């Protein structure tokens, strides 16, 4: 292998690929601890841990291709999306992990954070007031009590790998813990609304589509400024700002 690919890099962490090995560099040891423990407990395909030398974690590449990517049309079949839904149901039905999710907040705390972020988005001219106000109303449906399950916590479509309409691996478990099942499903389908029905069919019962759509708005509102500040572009076609506009 004569080159190193930078998969993602920002002030919190970086991931490099060298051949079939991924090197995850993270100064937050607790976050890496969670990733290793979650992969060991999750009843779904996960990457093999090759070695760990803090702050570096080396894991093997998983076979297959990413289910989708935010901002791009997915080339995966409806059956592959349904298989992803079934795999996530298996995770959510597993025994709870013995730690709290890093993203875990009660509805009141989450509402306060959301209101502060909405105010900042408008005050700083990041997004129009009407767009923020509309999506804040949509997001309200996600601010309700939920039964905790074993969640991935950052289940983006490019963290799920598939081949021949089956899930071959789910990566990036650093946000795993106890959380809201519908948050995982919303994260998976963010920007891929056309596959929400496929995922719901594979997942089975307990899917409230209005709450999933609310999580799309909530996650996007909370993420826009962070993404800009860390070198990502939420204004790119099909990404977070377009998700917010679709709720109008």
UniProtKB/TrEMBL annotation:
Taxonomic superkingdom: Bacteria
Domain Aminoglycoside phosphotransferase, first and last residues per copy: 38-206
One Pfam family named in its UniProt record: APH
InterPro entries on file: AGP_Transferase (IPR051678), Aminoglycoside_PTrfase (IPR002575), Kinase-like_dom_sf (IPR011009)
Name of this protein: Aminoglycoside phosphotransferase family protein
Species per Swiss-Prot/TrEMBL record: Streptomyces montanisoli
């Amino acid at each position: 292998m004569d080159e190193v690919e930078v998969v993602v890099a920002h002030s919190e962490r970086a991931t490099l690929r060298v051949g079939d090995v991924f090197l995850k560099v993270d100064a937050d040891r607790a976050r890496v601890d969670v990733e290793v423990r979650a992969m060991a407990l999750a009843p779904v395909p996960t990457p093999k841990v090759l070695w760990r030398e803090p702050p570096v974690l080396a894991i093997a590449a998983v076979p297959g291709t990413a289910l989708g990517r935010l901002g791009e049309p997915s080339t995966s079949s409806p059956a592959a999306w349904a298989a992803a839904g079934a795999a996530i149901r298996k995770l959510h039905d597993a025994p709870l992990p013995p730690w709290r999710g890093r993203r875990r907040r009660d509805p009141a705390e989450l509402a306060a954070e959301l209101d502060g972020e909405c105010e900042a988005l408008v005050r700083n001219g990041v997004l129009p007031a009407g767009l923020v106000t509309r999506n804040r109303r949509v997001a309200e449906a996600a601010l309700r009590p939920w039964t905790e399950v074993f969640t991935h916590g950052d289940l983006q479509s490019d963290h799920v790998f598939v081949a021949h309409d089956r899930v071959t691996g789910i990566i990036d478990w650093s946000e795993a813990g106890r959380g809201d099942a519908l948050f995982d499903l919303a994260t998976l389908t963010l920007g891929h609304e056309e596959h929400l029905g496929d995922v719901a069919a594979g997942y089975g019962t307990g899917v409230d589509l209005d709450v999933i759509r609310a999580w799309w708005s909530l996650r996007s509102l909370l993420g826009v400024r962070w993404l800009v500040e860390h070198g990502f572009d939420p204004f790119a076609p099909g990404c977070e700002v377009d998700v917010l506009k679709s709720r109008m």
